[in-house]
Amino acid sequence: MEPIHIVIPVFNRKEHTKACLESLRAQTNTNYKVTIVDDGSTDGTGEMLQSDYKEVEVLRADGSLFWTAGVNLGLRHAMKAGASLLMTMNNDVIADEHLIENMFRWHQKYPAAMLGALEMDVHTRKPIFGGERLNWLLNRIDHVLDILPEEEQHGLHPVTHLPGRGLLIPKAIFERIGLLDQDRLPHYLADYDFTHSARRAGFQLFVNYDARLYTYPDESGEREIRREKSLKNYYKHLFDIKGGGNLRDFTRFTLKNCPTPYVPFHLANGYVRRIFGYIIK
User: Fold this and answer.
1) What is the extent of the structural domain holding 197?
2) CA distance 280 to 271
3) Most buried residue, 62, 89, 135, 214, by CB count within 10 Å?
């Protein structure tokens, strides 16, 4: 079977990258290739990759890409080299040893579908994200983990969108809808936008509960902004390219994906949540 080509954008956080790559080395199925897009790291990441991970292909950039353009650079490179099955992954995750094995197993049953991974807290080893289902009419997101009995937390479960960490994507999806929208969504929401677009194009989206990733829930850029609340961080939350409440990106995402009759309500509700949510939480 064609290998999975894994694309990982990185900028510093060398130890996270090391832990991620070590977890991939420990996979029960090693039919994969890794391409790292090193976007100008200054903490020794490049030197570590060159000396310790010679099996990893490294594309170097100048620090101007952010997440979406970094992923697209790696995807274009992999597909030019003949990749037909791709996976986007962040460097701040640790792959369960059966991740690749169980992605292949379900891909064989649903070869045209996009598959996400079940996310586990790296510290508690408990599931923290198992997919979401967005109802545009009610402006509500249902978290699959909250409604799924524990005994059913295995196999595939349908969702409306997926995050880009540990996301298995057949090449046919890119051929139908193109790459991620790096111009309008350079960092956050590009993965959700891409997967919404794929679903509208007729592709199925599932979270694969048998394929697990361990994540660091308290170490995202948005968590750091919220951890030390200040006017400066409030501004970053709403307007910075890495701000989780970025109003520009939320507006672009909504106008592109929300059914037209629901746009005003969705925008108003989203603005309130972002403007006041930082203060309340």
Assistant:
1) 4-218
2) 14
3) 89
The pLDDT tens digits of the residues spanning 29-47 come to 999 999 999 999 999 999 9
CA nearest 191: which of 266, 47, 88? 88
Distance of CA 156 to the CA centre of its chain: 18
Q: Which one-letter DSSP state was computed for residue 150?
A: G
Q: Is the pLDDT of residue 277 over 60?
A: yes
Note the pLDDT of residue 221.
55
- Say which CATH number the domain at 98 has: 3.90.550.10
Looking at the fold, whether 153 and 269 belong to one and the same domain comes out as: no
The torsion angles phi and psi of 129, rounded to 5 degrees, stand at -150, 120
Q: Say yes or no: 102 and 172 in one domain.
A: yes
CA distance 16 to 161: 26
Q: What share of residues in the chain are helix, strand, coil (percent, to 5)?
A: 40, 25, 35
Could you give the number of structural domains in the chain?
2
Shared domain check, 276 and 159: no
Close Cβ partners of 28 (under 8 Å, ≥ 6 residues apart): 97, 98, 100, 101
Contacts of 211 (CB under 8 A, 6+ apart): 96, 98, 99, 102, 103, 106, 115, 117, 118, 166
Helix ranges (DSSP H) in the chain: 14-25, 45-52, 66-80, 99-109, 144-147, 171-177, 190-200, 221-227, 231-239, 247-257, 263-280
End-to-end distance of the chain based on CA atoms, in angstroms?
Answer: 47
CA distance 192 to 172: 18
State both tokens at 130. 């198992």
Is the same domain home to 201 and 255? no
